[in-house]
């Protein structure tokens, strides 16, 4: 790096942003820095810059987690990542403004327990993956978007008795959820009772196709988790927020084919937590990275 380079004070933030947010591989990043800015930095030096950033990002993520565990509702989703020769799971837990990525070499309940400790939320929104079920002290809301996809699969597989009506019912429930701000609590209770009556009628049907039978069995197991969101304004019908927050991880995985080291995967998960939290607080990614490297918290939403 040439003396007096304008990127001197911000070099670490610049490297972290290009590598972890824009997904530029290390070899290409070295060329980018040289060709555009005249900075001759080897791949090894770039790795050292990332390595030196582990502590401040771990500290920032611990602050994010503390804020998350102060809430009453969590939403979660999971995606895979390749670390060395093994597969890890990266999960995302979100309250309205706080995401946090969990990274472990399994997606079991043990991962969630390690993340939560003895604390439990009142409500939890997730897909029907068993490792994320059963943690809420009051109610669990299953993701209706995931369920609608399964219903469509049953329809495509030949079920014309149960699945079509269920798909219409779930879409009706989602539409009610989108209108909640304009509806009174009493009206929402009426809608919830109506949804359950309609579901009772559907459950009395006898599917002629195996796909319909299987789908009906699934609904029997989760039916009490289908319409919790209708009368609880703090919940949504889907965990799409968590899914969208994890999408950059999936894209990054395709670009890089994973991580060589565990510390690299852990650092990336912490960076994603910081960047996604910043996005939800209307803070630019590069600014959040600079604040983290300076040991400063990300400003909360005004």
Task: Indicate the topology.
Layout: H1 11-21, H2 26-37, H3 43-51, H4 54-68, E1 73-83, E2 86-95, E3 98-104, H5 109-116, E4 123-126, E5 139-142, H6 144-156, H7 163-178, H8 185-203, H9 210-222, H10 228-231, H11 240-256, H12 262-280, H13 285-293
Parallel strand pairs: 1-4, 4-5
Antiparallel strand pairs: 1-2, 2-3
Helix pairs in contact: 1-13, 4-12, 6-7, 7-8, 12-13
Structural summary, described in words:
This protein has 13 helices and five strands. It has 302 residues and is α/β, with parallel strands linked by helices. The protein has three domains: 11-51; 67-139 and 239-280, 2-Layer Sandwich (Nucleotidyltransferase, domain 5), CATH 3.30.420; 144-231. A hairpin with a 2-residue loop joins strand 2 and strand 3. Helix 4 packs across helix 12, helix 6 runs antiparallel to helix 7 and helix 7 runs antiparallel to helix 8. The longest helix has 19 residues, at 185-203.
